[in-house]
Amino acid sequence: MKRVALPLLLPVLLLSSVPVGAAEPAAFTPGEDRPAGDLTHHQPRDKKAFTRPAATLTADQMMRFKLGDGFFRRIWVSAPASTQAADGLGPLFNSRSCQRCHVGDGRGHLPDGSMGSEAFFLRLSVPPRTEAEQKALADGRQAVIPDPVYGTQLQTSSIQGHAAEGQVRIDWTDRPVTLADGHRVVLRQPHYQITGLAYGPLDPDVMISPRVAPPMIGLGLLEAIPEADLLAKEDPDDRDGDGISGRANRVWDVAAGAVRMGRFGWKAGQPTLDQQNQSAFNGDIGLSTPLFPKAAGDCTAAQATCLTAPDGNSPQYQNLEVPQAVSDLVLFYTRTLSGPARDARVAASAQVLRGKGLFTDIGCAACHTPQHRTADQGVDPVVAGQTVWPYTDLLLHDMGDGLADNRPEGLADGREWRTPPLWGLGLTAVVSPRAGYLHDGRARTVLEAVLWHGGEAAAARDRVQALPAGDRDALLAFLNAL
Ligand code: HEC
Ligand code: HEC
Fewer CB within 10 Å, N- or C-terminus of the chain? Predict the structure, then answer.
């Protein structure tokens, strides 16, 4: 339904082998070298580039940022421990700290040969089977129905005395692609196998979705873009006939007790930064928080020993493992991690500007919206009124079979993903050397990531495949200069 326009577009593209837009380099737009607006930092573009606070923080705010950073790095231990402020890990978990997955506040990476990786996990769910389950999905109260035994995420680690749920094995098949100028790229397609299941079989209908940890920069600014501006770009029935639809995810906002637009996660499954953070504390580390007070995290009723294990809830911390004060500091930290300035000379160079022109002309900007303005009011003043350059519309798009996980989440179907921001893209390998691109980290280079685009983005991908080498290099130079 959403792809009707593509068969019409493709023949036109194949016929017009003339590269689109090769003629006109774009102009440098003042401000585009400061992606996070006034919050942009001007420290070196080195491996700490994603860890820097907003340039605008006051001394008092700097203090809160540093305290939040401490909790983001904190290594949690199992309860009971002598340090009551840091116990409560698990019993099941994927990692002991936020930072171990969001390496250098950047992205995580895949297991590498026999070496495991904490920063990658499988989300799990089953199709709705009862009326109550159907209703919970239809009302938006739940985004998924958990596997009856393993819950919504496969926890590959556990505290002593408990069994981890299982391990993930990834096998690869090569998919060679030859570009119009003869350049050959070998894409690798992942296949997942779950081994060592400790709590019996998975549900026969289980759906799995592989995810790697995304970078953490500029998230407070993304949260502050007015919803109306984002919804104005929705085009679910592709009425403008450009082959690109785009629609917002809608998910349950626990604090508001209502359905809200989803913004965070690879399928925009979380409506707010606070809820995203707290669900990470709960699901990834196994800690109770104000919004998710279950101390056993993602343990299910079928995992009885896990549910009755000692927890780290302490009376002096609101009977939680992560009390409000701590989740508030982590919220402030994640809201004010800024993002590096681009090198203005590089950004204004002829090749990069030519790539910038191509980015728009071949249709990348239709989803990767270059610029937004954050709200002036109704948001934390620290992120208000900024012109920012994230290169995302925060909407869901059908990306084709090659990227499909076939696991719906909220309104997102099994082929849809949220357009990820591209700011800081060029620093990916500097910050987290083994990191890959896309939701499951399968792409080893930016070009591989682009060649995986399908569905609504198939036309843009075909145009990249058709580019002469010089234009392709210019496009990649632009992306690597972000
Ligand atoms: C086990 C690895 C892991 C740990 C630990 C972890 N994360 Fe994540 N994080 C992820 C993955 C994977 C995603 C993508 C989730 C999705 O698509 O649903 C993510 C997404 C996020 C996002 C959304 C970013 C975006 O661009 O939408 C935020 C914010 C975040 N995590 C914060 C945290 C915080 C805060 C902690 C610690 C409390 C934490 N994470 C711990 C792996 C991890
Ligand atoms: C129809 C919308 C759409 C269009 C058009 C589009 N993209 Fe994307 N892009 C996405 C989505 C959605 C993803 C995430 C897919 C996934 O993770 O499986 C993505 C991912 C990416 C990534 C990887 C980002 C990351 O954080 O790992 C890069 C790089 C990228 N796109 C560049 C481009 C370029 C260059 C073009 C133009 C040739 C383009 N995109 C066109 C929607 C689009």
Answer: N
